[in-house]
Design a protein that fits this description.
By secondary structure, this protein is an alpha/beta fold. The protein has 4 domains: 52 residues, no CATH class; 110 residues, Response regulator (Rossmann fold); 142 residues, Response regulator (Rossmann fold); 108 residues, Homeodomain-like (Arc Repressor Mutant, subunit A, Orthogonal Bundle). α2 links the parallel β3 and β4. α5 crosses α6, α14 packs across α16 and α14 packs across α17. The protein is globular and about 75 Å long. The two termini are 56 Å apart.
Length: 439
């Protein structure tokens, strides 16, 4: 070992070495320094043995958590992982990739999202360790965390009716309690509002393969009977893709004749569908975090206030599948379609009026009568909705957000947000982040 090379012992005692630490005559160290060094090393080794015994006795052991998710949502996993990091847990997420688990491993708790597989249900019920379920199976005798389907239905109805649709339907496959709840709550909410409810009931084909010819023919038959235009809510984004595919095969325009709203806001489904899908963000990250926090309560013997913790959905993320205002006048409908495509351009109400074959005064009066708002308000609404998505989904600065949404600058963006939300864009972004992380 080279002369003069420093090493650190226990972060508090530095020496310079010319040979081996102990027993080497070439070590230039006083007798008292050698004794102090030996005491430090002995104390350090003793503390390590003590910590090892503590871990063996299980007093400060890292908990091992098994994830059993029937369907995989990256945001849900990230919410669980965020809590796990703070709690010092180890996550066994093998089943999220290969849909199996090593039953011989020792786990301290389970976070599950149960599907139809009876083996998984039997394993969870007989595991003898704390379990939290993510989902809508209230019959399972363990605490659960899920999105509040009543609020999902109310959010969907408010959004679709706000786009002028008086005919709103639900694509019901009868695949489970979540599907049934969303259909029931949407029907009830429609009954309290001035809209007509339509049910596309394919529950008779719930056990048929997804590519079943008979099932697909029935879906097309039901779509053909729907009044046009109609707005449809699907249980999830996969079902929304099915609806859009069938409609396009039949020559039904989406969203002009049939608007489609999904649930989950799965980017892989929504962005790459034949028509990009508008979807309700269920806050899967918040659901995962809340499930992990509930499991931690069980570990520490803290009382569970309710066997079911229902979290509110975050928002509707608008895309092309609902990019339409259902109005009776064709001139206004065409103008709305143009505004939806061109609101990020430097336009105002007067410029938009030149796109219609009417005088400016006549057009503004007709637009107000058909939509209940002015052309300027419509442009501002489109820009604010786009800004909401960018503020929540990106880290762009306010100037870049304003530019991408068609605002003349950051100050106009701030004024529009204060008018719509009573808060600045920065406050809106902060509150949205807090809601996403809340349990």
């Amino acid at each position: 070992m080279s002369v003069g090379r420093p090493i650190r012992l226990n972060r508090c005692f530095r020496i310079r070495l010319t040979g081996d630490i102990f027993g080497d005559k070439s070590l230039k160290m006083s007798h008292s320094a050698k004794s102090k060094q030996r005491r430090i090393v002995s104390t350090t080794l003793g503390n390590q043995r003590k910590r090892s015994r503590i871990l063996e006795n299980g007093r400060h052991k890292h908990r091992h958590i098994l994830l059993l998710l029937d369907w995989y949502a990256p945001e849900m996993h990230s919410g669980i992982a965020r809590y796990a990091r703070g709690a010092g847990w180890f996550l066994d997420a093998l089943s999220t990739r290969v849909h199996r688990w090593e039953s011989g491993w020792k786990h301290d708790g389970i976070i599950c999202l149960l599907g139809p597989d009876p083996r998984v249900r039997e394993f969870v019920c007989s595991a003898g360790i704390p379990v939290v379920n993510i989902g809508y199976d209230a019959a399972l005798p363990v605490p659960r965390v899920a999105t509040d389907n009543r609020l999902v239905a109310e959010m969907a109805l408010a959004y679709l009716s706000g786009r002028g649709f008086s005919d709103i339907g639900y694509y019901f496959k009868g695949t489970g309690p979540c599907d049934l709840e969303r259909m029931t709550f949407l029907r009830e909410a429609a009954g309290r509002s001035n809209v007509r409810f339509h049910l596309l009931d394919l529950s008779a084909f719930r056990d048929a393969p997804i590519d079943s010819d008979a099932r697909y023919r029935e879906l097309k038959k039901l779509l053909h009977r729907l009044p046009k235009p109609t707005a449809m809510l699907a249980e999830n984004d996969d079902c929304a893709v099915e609806l859009i595919t069938a409609a396009l095969d039949m020559g039904i325009k989406v969203p002009e004749a049939m608007a489609v709203l999904g649930v989950n806001n799965d980017a892989l489904r929504c962005e790459f569908a034949p028509v990009p899908i508008s979807s309700i963000d269920e806050n899967m990250a918040g659901v995962g975090f809340a499930a992990a926090a509930l499991l931690d309560d069980l570990f520490h013997g803290r009382p569970v206030k309710s066997p079911s913790l229902l979290l509110p959905p975050l928002r509707v993320v608008s895309r092309r599948s609902t990019d339409y205002m259902a109005v009776g006048d064709k001139v206004v409908a065409d103008l709305l379609a143009q505004l939806s495509r061109r609101f990020t351009e430097p336009i105002n109400a007067d410029i938009a009026a030149t796109w219609a074959p009417l005088s400016k005064r006549h057009l503004h009066a007709l637009f107000k009568r058909e939509t209940g708002r002015s052309v300027s308000d419509c442009i501002a609404d489109l820009r604010v909705r786009r800004a909401e998505d960018l503020l929540i989904g990106t880290d762009l600065k306010l100037g870049a957000v304003a530019e991408r949404c068609g605002f003349s600058g950051e100050h106009q963006l701030i004024r529009a947000f204060r008018s719509h939300h009573g808060k600045t864009p920065t406050e809106y972004r902060r509150s949205a982040a807090m809601r996403r992380r809340s349990t």
